[in-house]
Design a protein that fits this description.
Elements lengths: L2 E6 L7 H8 L5 E4 L8 E5 L2 E5 L12 E4 L4 E2 L1 H11 L6 H4 E4 L3 E2 L2 H14 L11 H9 L14 H16 L10 H14 L3 E3 L1 H10 L4 E4 L23 H8 L6 E9 L2 E3 L12 H9 L12 E3 L1 E2 H11 L3 E5 L9 E10 L2 E3 L11 E9 L16 H14 L3 E5 L7 E3 L2
Parallel strand pairs: 1-10, 1-11, 2-5, 2-10, 5-7, 6-8, 7-9, 11-15, 14-16, 15-19
Antiparallel strand pairs: 3-4, 12-13, 16-17, 16-18, 19-20
Helix pairs in contact: 2-7, 4-5, 4-6
Bound molecules: guanosine-5'-diphosphate, 6-O-phosphoryl inosine monophosphate (IMO) and magnesium ion.
């Protein structure tokens, strides 16, 4: 069997959680392969809204195993909070939620270092979610990190103390940064104890054996392609590989094992945090999208920056990920507009540019738009794509032609049910 991959093509928050939940009945295992509690994946069904941060979005379906892969970074306190929130749903966590022994742990001092670093950067800050993501991946690549497998080791406390001592030394370089570590350590150690109630597995073996036994696996991306550490708008990115290739390293899956690659995008575009955003609308149109789309971060509550869809950026993301099919989200949000703009290319020194440039922060360029008819009607009650208004179908066909990939799903509302299959 192959591993299907579902990931975001823009700057995150495309609606990955919703579509993973919709697709889960087709799979046996849902696996997160990178990122950590910087993610906020929203699922809505039966009138309830759930936001997941580390736990994969297949958790509400019985008989499906949810795996937190080696490429993920885990904050035990946030993780425990997620488990506690899910307590009323009687989920059999012991058998249905597995942790990779090789997943790295976010320490309280990683969060402090994240905050200290952001404060020191001042107006150049990344706008991180302050979850300690950057410092934890730095310790991973710096070969200092602690992993889930270490919590069972008799000298775990010693390893923890050694790393904390290193961090405390680093924090001294941030003059004036004050913190109270002792108040953070007890809840962290308590949460480590509750992690021990879950199965920690050699996830690369587990997954490859499952594939050999015919199990169907869906890898759930976090963040988005433009936040990828290598291909995103560096340095305003996250610290992991959010792209398809990250599935291989984040789960221990060979490249030849990758099956479908489902790319998720909003019918427009958003970004939260700092960094370039070529089609950003810093005006009342952007404000209208934010209001209509309820564009506020699922993890931090921050207002998301809004703009039109950017095909230069989208083509780039499709290329890097090898996307085989697309899901277009939040089409209902654009119902408020008579006309919808689509950025087809950029103009740089009078030249048309179709390939995403090296660094859009410092580049003097203009996004060029094509205007399409809006549909101007409520989509949220639609039950099939055939009954969709012609203007929406034209928008979809136009994007498919521009991007050269089929749009198989059109989402018209946050609920599981508000999902239309095309083709
Ligand atoms: P993720 O991080 O990619 O899982 O996305 P988020 O959950 O952070 O943000 C997506 C937001 O849009 C959530 O509030 C979803 O409930 C909501 N959402 C998802 N699909 C749709 C849709 O088609 N229409 C509308 N109006 N909201 C949607
Ligand atoms: P999901 O999975 C949107 C952004 C932050 C910041 C940058 C770096 O819900 O789509 P970090 O905390 O990772 O060091 O922050 O990345 N960011 C996200 N933006 N959705 C996310 O996740 C994000 N995770 C991180 O806002 O700009
Ligand atoms: Mg999100």
């Amino acid at each position: 069997m192959k591993v299907d991959v579902l990931l975001g093509l823009q700057w995150g928050d495309e609606g990955k959680g919703k579509i993973v939940d919709v697709l889960t009945p087709d799979y046996d295992i849902i696996a997160r392969f990178q990122g950590g509690p910087n993610a906020g994946h929203t699922l809505e069904f039966n009138g309830i809204k759930h936001v997941l941060h580390t736990i994969p979005s297949g958790i509400f379906h019985a008989n499906v195993v949810n795996l937190v892969g080696n490429g993920v970074v885990i904050d035990p306190v946030i993780f425990k909070g997620e488990l506690d929130k899910l307590a009323p749903f009687n989920i059999d966590f012991e058998n249905r939620l597995l942790l990779s022994k090789k997943a790295h742990l976010i320490l309280p001092t990683h969060r402090l270092l994240d905050a200290a670093s952001e404060t020191a950067k001042g107006k150049n800050k990344i706008g991180s979610t302050l979850k300690g993501i950057g410092p934890t991946y730095m310790d991973k690549t710096g070969r200092n990190g602690l992993r889930v497998g270490d919590i069972f080791s008799p000298n775990f406390q010693e390893k923890y103390d050694a790393l904390v001592e290193k961090h405390v030394g680093m924090l001294k370089h941030y003059e004036g940064f004050e913190y109270d570590l002792s108040s953070l350590e007890k809840p962290w150690m308590d949460a480590i104890e509750s992690l021990k109630n879950l199965q920690a597995v050699d996830s690369e073996h587990y997954l490859n054996t499952a594939l050999l036994n015919g199990k169907r696996v869906l890898a759930e991306g976090a963040q988005g392609t433009m936040l990828d550490i290598d291909f995103g708008t560096y340095p305003f990115v996250t610290s992991s590989n959010t792209v398809t290739a990250g599935t291989c390293t984040g789960l221990g899956i060979a490249p030849t094992r990758i099956g479908k690659v489902i790319g998720i995008f909003k019918a427009y575009c958003t970004r939260v945090g700092s960094g370039p955003f070529p089609t950003e609308l810093d005006d009342e149109v952007g404000e209208e999208i934010r209001k209509e789309g309820r564009e506020f971060g699922a993890t931090t509550g921050r207002p998301r920056r809004c703009g039109w869809i950017d095909l230069v950026q989208m083509r780039y993301a499709i290329m890097i990920n090898g996307v085989t099919e697309l899901s277009m989200m939040k089409a209902d949000v654009l119902s408020i507009f008579d006309k919808i703009s689509v950025c087809t290319h950029y103009l740089v020194n009078g030249e048309k540019v179709y390939d995403f440039p090296f660094d859009v922060s410092d580049l003097d360029f203009t996004p060029v738009y094509e205007e399409l008819e809006g549909w101007n009607c409520d989509l949220t009650e639609l039950s099939d794509y055939e009954s969709a208004p012609d203007a929406l179908k034209k928008y979809v066909t136009y994007l498919e032609a521009q991007l050269n990939v089929p749009i198989n799903v059109v989402s018209v509302g946050p609920d599981r049910k508000q999902t239309l299959a095309n083709h």
